[in-house]
Design a protein that fits this description.
alpha+beta; Jelly Rolls; 10-stranded antiparallel β-sheet; 6-stranded antiparallel β-sheet
Length: about 375
């Protein structure tokens, strides 16, 4: 109700050029309930780097028509490496598991859920459903729990700040465009590590509260940007004015990458902070993570086929692999060495033939070019 009121008031009192629509489904929440959830819908959740692997990323709990909790329900727990399915009725209970391989990457994850006579869960990077089970009863409500959940969200994601600090995820370094919107004057505080950015109003734009003591006016879109850049051993995060200038409000230097910042206000402040859609960045990050995972699996396969005839024909390569595979830059050395090896193409063809039906053929082709394409490299 609060956000519907905010959306109506912002559209009514702001000029049309600066009005903003708040999509309730795009407000990041810990818990959600979907009534009559038939069909398909997209759930976006945050898989925090460094999070506990014992904690589920996503929990779905189905309540059925004509049945009462806790006697009858189906609960699905999605972890990084497995899915746990708990089907409970007044007469019986079954608990089954489905492995996820490769494991789900860190960061934002988009799950597509299809609910009909079957319950299916899909994730980007997988050409098959992670879960596909029969659904024998009519679902009345679907309870969802996870980190920063949104539903079918194509608009900027929003967080509600109301008395307590909210954590806003950061996928990686780069730019993040933010908008602050409130129904009353507010003093937001953004925290990066141990550094607090106290914000105020200079009469024209967002500024540091230490030099400008006015609160941010209500019913106004206040635009700022977060810019994080990494050097060799330092992460530099700056708060920028208006999202498209080089004018800094303040800067903090950190010794490591942070994966979220927090935002809060004074005790009575209530406002929204919106982040422009990072969908392309999210999907690019997700695809790269899954591809890296696939490359790791190919490297593991190298270990397993060391006794392959192509390796036995080249003892020097086998000795090198024993050293390089365990080395942190073994991938790079392995590529450089095998490209120049006469046994390379035999092994490459063997790997492509063995792994194409698993979807890794392209990964192998891209990662291990044909030695005939390398100048001066003999082919076999």
């Amino acid at each position: 109700m609060l956000f519907c009121l905010i959306a109506v008031l912002s559209c009514a009192f702001l000029p049309s050029s600066s009005s903003i629509y708040i999509n309730e489904d795009c407000i990041a929440r810990r818990q959600r309930t979907i009534t009559s959830p038939w069909g398909n819908f997209q759930l976006t959740v945050w898989n925090p780097p460094g999070g506990e692997t014992s904690e589920p990323l996503l929990t779905l709990m189905a309540e059925f028509y004509g049945k009462d909790l806790p006697d009858d329900y189906t609960r699905v727990l999605v972890f990084r490496e497995k899915i746990e399915i708990d089907v409970t009725s007044s007469e019986s209970r079954s608990l089954t598991y489905v492995n996820i391989n490769p494991i789900l990457p860190k960061g934002w994850l988009d799950f597509r859920v299809e609910l009909s006579d079957r319950l299916q869960i899909f994730a980007p990077g997988f050409n098959y459903p992670l879960l596909d089970i029969r659904n024998q009863m009519t679902v009345e409500q679907l309870f969802i729990e996870g980190s920063n959940i949104t539903v079918n969200c194509k608009d900027p994601v929003a967080w509600e700040v109301n008395g307590e600090a909210e954590s806003v995820p950061l996928v990686r370094t780069g730019w993040y465009n933010l908008t602050i919107l409130s129904r009353s004057p507010v003093f937001p505080v953004l925290s990066f590590g141990s550094k607090d950015f106290d914000l105020g109003w200079d009469g024209k734009a967002v500024a540091s509260r230490t030099t400008h003591g006015l609160p941010l006016p209500a019913f106004t879109e206040h635009h700022i940007s977060v810019k994080c850049e990494a050097s060799e051993q330092i992460l530099e995060c700056s708060l920028m004015k208006k999202g498209n200038t080089n004018e800094k409000i303040d800067t903090v230097y950190l010794s490591h990458m942070i994966h979220f910042f927090t935002i809060k206000g004074d005790a009575r402040d209530s406002f929204l902070i919106l982040m422009d859609s990072q969908h392309e960045q999210i999907q690019g990050h997700l695809s790269a993570t899954i591809e890296n995972s696939n490359r790791e699996r190919v490297l593991i396969h190298y270990k397993r086929v060391r006794e392959h005839a192509a390796y036995r024909a080249n003892p020097q390569l086998g000795i090198f692999l024993n050293h390089a595979i365990g080395n942190r830059d073994g991938n790079r050395k392995l590529q450089r060495f095998t490209r120049a090896s006469k046994s390379h193409n035999k092994l490459r063809r063997h790997l492509i033939g063995s792994y194409t039906h698993h979807g890794y053929g392209k990964v192998i082709r891209d990662w291990l070019p044909d030695s005939r394409s390398m100048t001066g490299c003999p082919a076999t």
